Amino acid sequence: MGRQPCCDKVGLKKGPWTAEEDKKLISFILTNGQCCWRAVPKLAGLLRCGKSCRLRWTNYLRPDLKRGLLSESEEKMVIELHANLGNRWSKIASHLPGRTDNEIKNHWNTHIKKKLRKMGIDPVTHKPLYPPPADQKKQQQQISSHTVEFADAEEDKGNKTATQSPISDANEEEKSITRAFNAIEADALLSKSPGFCTDEVPLIQLDEILVPRASASSSSSSNSCLLPEEIYFSSIEWTESLSLWGLDDFTSWDSICDDGDRKLAVDPFSQYQRVPHDQDSWKFELL
DNA sequence: AAGCAGCACAACCGCATCAGC
DNA sequence: TGCTGATGCGGTTGTGCTGCT
């Protein structure tokens, strides 16, 4: 409707984010929570558009993000979900905790697509590209068993009700997702895989993190209120430490309250209060 | 060591959707 | 009910890194 793009303002920065910008954004969101992205850059003192801030946060800075390659079971789940949902990356991502739609999309385009093609499976339809020779058939079935199985099920379903869309059928969608989880469960038993596993990333709990005091005056402020200027994370290598937080206990961070179709994230930091650790630093303690 | 190609992923762009007025 | 602004989503691009020649 002729709406102006949000990043067309002169003077707004584009391109890769700097560590300084990351710090500003993190401090702001930890203090104020996620609200009104349009206002975030102004209030946080960033020369970015709100959209850019939202993307940076959701795809990179969120403390509950898993880093690293998708595990085999995650990959299988993505394939399974993709077979059912298509390119609805955000929906797919919502079933993979700690993974973003962007991450999954990238992984699909760079890894999974190729893998499937190599195996003679069409990454779009999830059906064989050509009739496989007998020896390949077995291999294909091993790797994409759920998917092919699902395609068969779809055909069966199609025979029963020709007009029914698999995507619009929420029950079928749920069933398929359950199957994906079952596949993961089964896979977990078998996955003594030597490949990289994100679970191997060392975890740091929030209460293990010490936040340096910026100034003596800040010590008198309320211990539950973090003002942006009070937060000075010089001793923390942010991009790394955030990925190491691995806040698995913080499912509440991602525990999304359904507000109609809109989703509201719950701030896990509300469960913590800041208390003096020593002369130079604060620490977080569970309320 | 330099140049090149391919890869991986962060970031951008534009459209769709939703909510408020 | 239609308009407008904010946000979400998916496709695409840009860039840095790595391995090969």
TrEMBL record:
Keywords tagged on the record: DNA-binding, Nucleus, Repeat, Transcription, Transcription regulation
GTP-binding keyword on record: no
Domain Myb-like: 9-61, 62-112
Recorded superkingdom: Eukaryota
Family matches, as InterPro entries: Homeodomain-like_sf, Myb_dom, Myb_TF_plants, SANT/Myb
GO MF, any single term: transcription cis-regulatory region binding
GO biological process: carboxylic acid biosynthetic process; regulation of DNA-templated transcription
Cellular component per GO, a single term: nucleus
Residue segments, region Disordered: 123-173
Subcellular location: Nucleus
CDD domains named in the record: SANT
Limits of the HTH myb-type domain: 9-61, 62-116
Official protein name in the record: Protein ODORANT1-like protein
Biological source species: Cinnamomum micranthum f. kanehirae
